[in-house]
Batch of 2 targets.
Target 1
Amino acid sequence: MTTGLQKRIESSPAGQIALSLCIVVTLVAVVVTNLPESLLRRNLLKVADPYLRSTGLDQNWRIFAPNPRQTSLRLEARVRYDDGSVVVWQPPAGGDLVGVYRDYRWRKWLENATVAPEREALWRPAAMFAARQVERPNRTPDSVTLVMSSQELRAPGAPGPDRGPWRNEAIYTLSLR
């Protein structure tokens, strides 16, 4: 059901021009946000981004294209105590109701802590956080070692096994003594 005002706008030449301009601006802004990373894209986004955010169209699907990551990642913190025991902390996962949303944030954090260019800035705070998460009464943590595990994934349609073996690499050790 349309209102009288809406009908008048849609039927007037000025209204039709205004609506057409809105559609064109929206389409251009959406195309800009999906351009490959470049100086042109960055410059155009300075103009398009406020419009995209204000309209709720600031979705970014480039994560899947053109080159999705072909590696599965895991991260764990191995907290060694003064008595020689070790407790392993891993980012939380799961949850029936809102777990998917929490998991997404933790997976994004894991990606930033393992493969992002500025990842090393996250290692010390991550190690300290993990030590706090597995605190035990009457035991003092001596060190925390962050271990990244990675597994190569086979491209769809490529011959061979779906995935390679897990490889573990200690990427950071924090001494707490």
Note: Residues 44 and 89 are 43 Å apart (CA to CA).
Target 2
Amino acid sequence: MKYLMLVCVDPSIEPDVTAVEMDEWLDRAGDARQLGNELCGPGDGWTVRLRGGKPFVTDGPFAETKEFIAGFDLLECDSDEEARAIAAAHPVARFGAIEVRRFAAN
């Protein structure tokens, strides 16, 4: 099954992740991790809506939230339990949140 793992952080908390910890997590995730990357902050993004056939673009995120998505990983796992274990081992889980969602169609 495929899963999207969203790595969420609170900008008021200083990240405490070392390169070694990330390398260890990448080793643990192994072949289950198909793709992943860090994202720019919400201030560097935009929201696009189509209303009445016209695009409306707003700089930054639509809603003010305490946490924002800082990165993502695409996982291919045999079970929900495997996906949860990989997410729980992510270094950001200590101070942020890891949201995992199954793809609707596998």
Note: The chain has one domain: 2-40+66-102.
